[in-house]
Fold this protein.
Amino acid sequence: MPLLIVAVGVAILIFLIIKLKLNTFVSLIITSFIIALVLQIPIDKIPTSIETGIGGQLGHLAVIFGFGSMLGKLVSDSGGGFRIATTLINRFGRKKIQIAVVISSFVVGLALFFEVGLVVLLPIIFVIAREVDLPLMYLGIPMAATLNVTHAFLPPHPAPTAVTDIMHAELGHVLLLGIIVAIPTVIVCGPLFNWVLFKLYPQVYRKDVDIKVLGKFREFKIDETPKFGISVLTSMMPVILIALATICSSTLPKNNLINEIIQFIGAPDAAMLISLIFAIYTMGIARHLKMTDISDSLVESVKQVSMMLLIIGGGGAFKQVLVDGGIANYISTLFAHTSMSPLLAAWLVAALLRISLGSATVASLTAAGLVAPLIAQTGVNPALMVLAVGAGSVFADHVNDAGFWMIKEYFGLSLKETFLSWTTLTSVLSLTGLASVLTLSIFI
């Protein structure tokens, strides 16, 4: 019955958006109230649940989104994105440009959350697609797939790192096996899925898509743009700071003053603020732009993402209602006793939680707690269990997750197109990851 309620909630949301053409944020809030009532959450607790969901979602993303969009706007308006795009095109060529995108996304994805990596990379991907005359989706698919793979499988991302601890696995072992699992998963869900989707559903591969959150495309002369090195350094500054903090957290003593300073500047919010200040100088002041012009770019960037932030907050409200309504506890009871393969059970529990709750992190941590006892009972490799949970946690991304709405808005897709492309991609990604983990289990 609880899973049926989740399905009904998704159906109501789709009806409001597609049939009634109601604003997505408003639709999410209406659906959240309806499902809260059906799940018998006390009426006086429903507003609190929805506020908690919105606040929890935006509390994590609002500052990063705001500063990230400002940084991207400065790099774009200065021509830095154009310089990076032109250099990559000349270096790899049009035919191999997907390789450049995958490599860049993998490096970025090791340090940043999926949502943050998307904010950092997308303006550059957008310019590259324009310059090589390719649909944004052609490069967006391998980029988003690679970011999602690193988010699911590889420490130091919070979910795989926390699950590694719950499973009492070795972090280095998880990272090594995670990379082995990630490689075929990225190949299948990036270039290969791209080719299949283009054959079966070519209408999503549109050129000259009007994507409001990225602003208007500007033409530049190459000699008027910032140099390649400073453009890359400015764009990658958040990645560098966060990666530095991650490395130092495991190599330097925790009570060391230098390490504490590095951890502070490498925290996502601080890293984005420092990176934005750096961008204001390199992409603005150093190029003799007036502060009024720089400020205008910053204001414009926030206008472009304001509605998307509300939509993401609405998705958080929907997720919180499902959590407070006991959906997670219900799924837990379904797998209290199971005789199936522990790797398959771990994947299935995480996948059901992901479909029901939306959050990959919540799905991972909840599933890990449920299936961790299976390690002692069966003797299965704990690192493989971590990866099986990670694979399940990204299955079938849909309307109750922030990533779904980001993909929809950033790539200018309709709700139907997002389901058929992104939800399908994450399902293939999850199943490919599971297949890779099961294959590894034969040899380990």
Remarks:
- The first helix runs from residue 2 to 19.
